Amino acid sequence: MKNIVELKNISKNYHSKEGEVAAVTHVDLAVGEGEFVSIVGPSGCGKSTLLSIIAGLVTPSAGEILIQGQPPKSCKSQIGYMLQKDHLFPWRNILSNVLLGLEIQKKLTSQNIDYAHELLEKYGLGDFKKHRPRELSGGMRQRVALIRTLASRPNILLLDEPFSALDYQTRLSVSDEVGAILATEGVTAILVTHDIAEAIALSDRVAVMSHRPCTVKNIHNINMKKGAATRRKSSEFPQLFDKIWEELKKDEE
């Protein structure tokens, strides 16, 4: 499998009144094309900093990061970023919100507009194009946010706790939907989450990070049959959950 993201000995230090603070240290991680990798770790360990480095929003203090063999800043258009909140504009309808990224990137071509319509139809939102965000459920809004990101045809999608604002039942449903959509579209995805079960259900691999400054403690290959709902019923699921939980708990102790 060809690597599309490569982090080589990445470290990031911040400066504060108290002095230099290490957020990330000596991180090595490679993500293959079409792969779904989740990053789990203690709160405040530097997981989101790592995503920002991959996105080219933060420059590492040391190490090298390559996106398809190039520095992140030279290929920003290939990277999509999905945040905790959907950030839909309430005064724009759903179609207009989905087209926003294309407008900003000056990619509002007839071909891309057709693709946005196609995504909305394909993933059950075709009847809601003229609705306002307030008329949709939280889960549907997150689906709109995902489609807005996919409409610009990114090769890599970064997800920073995108389901954390949802109630538990909706979170399960939406995370399963998002996983299925990304698998169908063949997008390489990197998810930051506190939810171990979510990481196991969606991922090809799970990277377990240490306490701050974060580094990679372990990487688990998920060999269960694909499909979040199927995985949650597997006898291997609780075993792997407990293993990852013990690794995180041991680090906090």
Q: What do these coordinates show?
A:
This protein has 253 residues and is of the alpha/beta class. 36% of the residues lie in helices and 25% in strands. It has helices at 47-55, 94-98, 100-104, 110-122, 138-150, 168-185, 196-202, 228-232, 236-252; strands at 3-16, 19-32, 36-40, 62-67, 79-82, 156-160, 188-192, 205-209, 216-221. Strands 5-6-7-3-8-9 form a six-stranded mixed β-sheet, with helices on both faces. A hairpin with a 6-residue loop joins strand 8 (205-209) and strand 9. Helix 5 (138-150) runs parallel beside helix 6 and helix 7 (196-202) crosses helix 9. It is globular, with a radius of gyration of 18 Å. It starts with a strand and ends with a helix.
Shape: globular
If strands are numbered along the chain, what order do they take across the biggest sheet? 5-6-7-3-8-9
Order of helices and strands: EEEHEEHHHHEHEHEEHH
What share of the residues does DSSP label as strand, in percent? 25-35%
Give the helix tally: 9
What does the main sheet amount to?
Answer: 6 strands, mixed
**Helix content percent band:** 25-40%
Q: What do the pLDDT scores average to?
A: 88
* Quaternary structure classification: single chain
Low-confidence stretches: none
Number of strands: 9
